């Protein structure tokens, strides 16, 4: 789906976006714009897919692939990564563009919110109920299982590096999920509610 359907609307949005300062990673995101947070989360996606996950995959490869303890753990991590890739595609193709459009609508009344794609409330509820493989606790349990393997206890270099990197990834993913679930989603749903009420008020005024 295209975020904006015509050049004038796109130029309006780009002009609004260009006026926003670039926040640092330790910003208070609840006080910044949804567009800034979406951009930060998108960069997090890029870091996961191009840096963190390839590095962890490399450590898995360096660890003896015949080690019976690692086979199941490597497969479990693969399941997590596949779910993460699918979720990233869904967020960046459907959810984030809707959030950006809603915020642009609140800044410029000439932009139409286009509610015909359905409520974001339904999309958020669906995500929470259909993404069990992305539960941060599942990644945390994987790290704990890795830390308890014989290779780690025996001082295997690659096993220790893998556990350390997975600990870091788990912490990053927890914060990423917190920003999405506790900040961006509520922000987006509130914008949707506001825009819906404004549209109803506008229709009522025309009817009157």
SSE layout and pairing:
Layout: H1 7-18, H2 34-62, H3 68-107, H4 120-130, H5 136-147, H6 150-153, H7 157-207
Helix pairs in contact: 2-3, 2-7, 3-5, 3-7, 5-7
Account of the 3D structure:
The chain is mostly helical. 76% of the residues lie in helices and 0% in strands. It is built from seven helices and no strands. Helix 2 (34-62) packs antiparallel against helix 3 (68-107), helix 3 (68-107) runs antiparallel to helix 5 and helix 3 packs parallel to helix 7. The two termini are 35 Å apart. The mean pLDDT is 81.
Largest sheet: none
Give the strand tally.
Answer: 0
Query: Helix/strand/pairing class, anyone?
Result: mainly alpha
How far apart are the first and last residues' alpha carbons, in Å? Answer: 35 Å
Shape label = elongated
Number of helices: 7
Amount of helix: over 70%
Beta-strand fraction estimate: under 5%
Q: What radius of gyration results from the CA coordinates?
A: 21 Å
Give the overall pLDDT as a whole number: 81
Low-confidence stretches: none
Order of helices and strands: HHHHHHH
Summarize the structure.
The chain has 208 residues and is mainly alpha-helical.
List keywords for this structure.
single chain, 208 residues, mainly alpha, 7 helices, elongated
């Amino acid at each position: 789906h295209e975020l904006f359907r015509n050049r004038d609307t796109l130029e309006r949005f780009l002009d609004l976006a260009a006026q926003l300062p670039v926040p640092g990673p330790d910003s208070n995101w609840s006080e910044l714009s949804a567009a800034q947070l979406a951009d930060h989360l998108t960069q997090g996606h890029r870091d996961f897919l191009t840096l963190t996950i390839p590095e962890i995959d490399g450590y898995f490869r360096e660890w003896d692939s015949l080690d019976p303890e690692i086979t199941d753990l490597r497969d479990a991590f693969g399941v997590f990564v596949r779910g993460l890739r699918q979720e990233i595609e869904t967020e960046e193709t459907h959810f984030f563009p809707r959030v950006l459009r809603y915020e642009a609508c609140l800044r410029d009344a000439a932009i139409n919110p286009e509610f015909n794609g359905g409520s974001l409330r339904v999309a958020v509820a669906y995500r929470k109920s259909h993404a069990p493989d992305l539960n941060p606790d599942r990644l945390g349990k994987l790290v704990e299982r890795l830390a308890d393997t014989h290779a780690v206890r025996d001082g295997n270099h690659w096993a220790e590096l893998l556990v350390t990197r997975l600990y870091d990834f788990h912490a990053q993913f927890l914060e990423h999920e917190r920003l999405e679930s506790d900040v961006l989603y509520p922000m987006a749903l509130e914008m949707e509610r506001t825009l819906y009420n404004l549209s109803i008020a506008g229709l009522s005024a025309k009817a009157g």
